[in-house]
Amino acid sequence: MAESKSNELMERIVSLCKRRGFVFPSSEVYGGINGFWDYGPLGAELKRNVKEAWWRSMTQQRDDVVGLDATIIMHPAVWRASGHVDTFSDPMIDCKTCKGRFRADQIAEIPCPQKPSKCVAECHGEKTEARAFNLMFRTTVGPVESEENLAYLRPETAQAIFVQFKNVLETSRQKVPFGICQVGKAFRNEVTPRNFTFRSREFEQMELEFFIRPDEVIQKLAGQVAAVDPADPLAVLRAPVATWGWEAWHKYWVEERLRWYESIGLPRTSLEEYWQTREELAHYAKATVDILFKFPFGTQELEGIAARGDFDLSQHQKHSGKSMEYFDEEAKAKYIPHVIEPSAGVDRLALALLCSAYTEEEVADEKGRKETRVVLKFHPRIAPVKVGVFPLLKNRPELVERALAIRDRLRPHLSVFYDESGAIGRRYRRQDEAGTPFGVTVDFETLGEAGPELRDTVTLRDRDTMQQTRVRIDDLLPLLLEKIR
Ligand code: ATP
């Protein structure tokens, strides 16, 4: 019962995304292509806002992180060094009867309608043994389709950061500890793309590699490595100190990331931390925390934050023959820095924001009749449109003229949607569904018809409370900027 309710909710969210232009199936006129999605006008704005908020918080608001924008296709040796050619695979099984292809580790999550305990997707056909299926998309570079020209579409953005570590270090004048971040497309030939955009074959990542001193260097330099106090783990948030080792930095980034999610409107209660067990950890990882979001289809990963030691840089040093060592002037020592990697998915986050924002409310219309109001309660910071501007009536040129003037005044500073068609209540509802946090209406009071004291004022409607307050036109811009910041 609970599950069918969640499915229904998910269906309503997917349908809203299509109806309002957040997300469409890729190449839909040709029947779509499994695992690929396009973002329509509102979705494109939402994603841009998410990426911009992440980039701002990582780079512009910090002194110790710089950005990178690398290519999607890199030298194939990168993927041999990183281990992706040999080990980036999922176990895949085929059904001999229905010809379905499934990820062996996920098949238990796909309930069989007839024999739930058997858990096969559509039928009870005989299954093949699990085989490793490499998730990287392959292509060839240049006109000759040969093995030597083989290249891969990157399955993550992180490796470009490692291979450019030295160039960035030398040109940015950063000193360890510091980070390099990147936002960009990644591609994985997922065996079973599903749950709408959650598991796609083309998606975007926002990744940070934060390079730190190895614990031994800190120990030598400061005589001790700061321990994370289990009684007060948040103490690590009180400004980084030189004695932090990988554990403190790891905890710090987990907290930073959780706080960032809250700052764009995902309540802490919708998130969970999952600490991978020793058995689950990659062989080089010291710790990995997944930040999970409670999606209607289950609590699933939004971001992974891994303490990866010096694995990646060492691998590239070994395979390229180029030194990845850093000379630490203060410690008077050369070493390969260790790394903490917060790695998030833009599309999963956009989906989490949509799910978290989606609300249905019973309200009364102008005539007092009950109706369901669908509203996306996005945080103003990431809402695709910040303010709707409406003349009360479209057939009164004096109202339209004032409304257009307000739109033009606000437009250089925030995204504005002007709408004059239909009853004002309908226009509010349309913006509620788009998640627009504010609505400005020009009415007869604006023109001074109700007396001079209300002249040059408009109503400002709050999407969530539906309350309207009168505001002077001259005060609108600073007021809105303050609320959206
Ligand atoms: P999963 O276990 O769900 O396959 P993962 O652990 O392989 O994910 P990572 O390699 O840690 O994922 O990638 C970092 C982030 O990139 C993930 O937390 C997720 O937000 C995003 N991501 C990874 N794979 C996909 C995908 N197929 N579709 C959308 N986003 C993805």
3D structure, described in words:
The chain is built from 13 helices and 23 strands. 30% of the residues lie in helices and 26% in strands. The longest helix is centred in the first third of the chain and has 20 residues. It is globular. α2 packs across α10. The two termini are 41 Å apart. It has 2 domains: 276 residues, Bira Bifunctional Protein, Domain 2 (BirA Bifunctional Protein, domain 2), CATH 3.30.930.10; 100 residues, Anticodon-binding domain (Rossmann fold, 3-Layer(aba) Sandwich). The strands form 7 sheets. A 7-stranded mixed sheet has the order 3-9-10-16-13-12-11, sandwiched between helices. It has a 5-stranded mixed sheet with strand order 20-19-21-22-23, with helices on both faces. A 3-stranded antiparallel sheet has the order 5-4-6. With 485 residues, it is α+β, with helices and mostly antiparallel strands. α11 links the parallel β19 and β20. About 2% of the residues have low confidence. Adenosine-5'-triphosphate binds next to β10, β13, β16 and α10.
